[in-house]
Amino acid sequence: MPKRKFRQFHRPKGMHDILPDEWPYWRKIYKTLSKLSEDYGFSRIDTPILEETDLYLRSTGEGTDIVEKQMYNLKTKGGDYLTLRPEGTPGIVRAYIENGMIGMSQPVKLYYVGPFFRYEAPQHGRYREFHQWGLEAIGGSSPVLDAQIIFVFYIFLKELGIKNLSIQINSIGCKECRPGYRRALVAYYKYKKAKLCSDCRRRLGINPLRLLDCKNPSCQNLAREAPQVLDYLCDDCKSHFKNVLEFLDELELPYFLNPHLVRGLDYYTKTVFEILPEEGKDLRQSALAAGGRFDNLVEFLGGKPTPAVGGALGIERVISLMKTRNIRAEKGKKNQIFFAQLGDLAKKKSLKIIEKLRKSGFSVISALSKDSIKSQLKIANKYEVDFSLILGHKEALEEKIIIRDMNTGIQEVVKLNDLAKKLRQKMRRRKRV
Ligand code: ATP
Ligand code: MG
Q: Whole-prediction pTM value?
């Protein structure tokens, strides 16, 4: 077949363009999350989008959905096996160890935000490229850290105007008590294999806890009757969990004990949690944020034994919930004005005047490639600015400019040198009305 000269390209399946219309949501979310993270003592960290494949095999764990099905793997020209990061924690722990953060005052509290990649079946709330905001507190075993991380995610959602949230929480024990629970689960499922989905049948030997988390209805029925992990916790895990709950009580957070919450990853110990919208607590892919404690992971990846806790929030799911609940993100910027010009001389002077205004603190929208004043003011209307500036040939000659009040249509001619001052006065007066 002859090659076509022109062809149209499409974005990869399950991946999205974030268009300008969407940005008010993202801007608000990034602003809120960085302020909250910093206010609560978490410092920003960025790690590479690619890490050694082995890092995820060892930490996220074989038998997890991520490692079994969802990783984007590649082999470099140099023969290295790398993976597009499917989650944040392994990379953060690798960075903590590699950069000697054990030498810093502990716990080291870090936050990250950026894209993650999982080869999933794309559907609503589940994409192949998505964005997470994560919090980690590495080097602390106190239950107050578990509670603080849950609290910061909760407050974040509240600050965005998202109410009616449900926090689900559980403890899945530690190296000491988990093996006993694991045995109890294997014994329970031993004669029920026929009713399990094929994934669970296979996982029973690798990671039986995952069976509790399976979304298949028949597996969910079996899970309801399964032994509950809380009955198998050692004294240390029991008291840790009790303490976490006491902190949550003190914060008056609406949490529910969910004995089937186990989370998909291998490295969790003790506390695991998810935050969901009330209406979605029984639905798939509705968790907004999730996380837990990972007391063995640092050691497992070659560091000293170091307890840690963290979690991650899915930004696309938060935006989608804001939209269904009709929560608007900010529209338009403060101090936004429109600049219109008419005639060659005016157009020539435009860029310089706009830059001067920008330096004085204004955010200037314009349509400089247009010549007709009518079509420029139409755009000004679309942006819903309070004031537009009009520079005609006469004004350009006289070093003057027209300020037009877009609500009343009243215009005033002012000297270019007084423009910033006059605009500020007018904006102040408008705010007072
Ligand atoms: P789920 O059970 O929904 O698959 P998960 O356990 O795989 O979630 P985590 O690894 O804990 O999710 O990620 C934390 C958060 O990131 C989730 O609560 C969710 O909001 C978001 N998230 C996870 N996977 C995706 C995805 N494929 N697309 C969009 N958001 C996602
Ligand atoms: Mg998943």
A: 0.90
